[in-house]
Amino acid sequence: MTTINHPAVVAEVTDFYLKYEEALCNNNLEVMDSLFWDAPEVVRFGIRENLYGSDEIRNFRQNRSSPKIEREISNFKVITFGKDAATVTLEFRRIINGVERSGRQSQTWYRFTEGWKVVSAHVSLLPV
C-alpha cells in the first residue's frame, strides 16, 4: 500500500520546492537547472511556450526577457505518493507590465538516485 503524504517526504519535497522558488525569483539558473530532470523527456508548459527537454528549458531561462520574478504564492500544496513521487501545486499573484495578474503552477517531482527532480511543470495565467 502506497503511503500518501508521509510527513517526512512532504517536508523534504517542500524544502526542495522552496529552494526552487527562491532560485526562480532571483533568476539563479544553476539551481533551477539542478532541480529539473536533465533529460529529453522533461516537459515545461509555460505562459507562452511549450518546452520539451532540458535543453529547451535551459535555453528559455537563459533568454527570458524579464529574468527576475517577484510574486506572492498562495494555496501551496504538496502531495506525496510513497517516498519517490510528488506533486506541487500553487496559485500566485504578480505584477506584469503594471497589471496585477493571477496564475497557477503545478509540478511533478520524482526522486531519482541523484535526488528529487521536476519531471513535468506547468505555469499559466488566469484571464484578466
From TrEMBL:
<dbReference type="GO" id="GO:0016740">
    <property type="term" value="F:transferase activity"/>
</dbReference>
<dbReference type="InterPro" id="IPR024507">
    <property type="entry name" value="AtzH-like"/>
</dbReference>
<dbReference type="InterPro" id="IPR032710">
    <property type="entry name" value="NTF2-like_dom_sf"/>
</dbReference>
<protein>
    <submittedName>
        <fullName>Asp-tRNAAsn/Glu-tRNAGln amidotransferase A subunit or related amidase</fullName>
    </submittedName>
</protein>
<keyword id="KW-0808">Transferase</keyword>
<dbReference type="Pfam" id="PF11533">
    <property type="entry name" value="AtzH-like"/>
</dbReference>
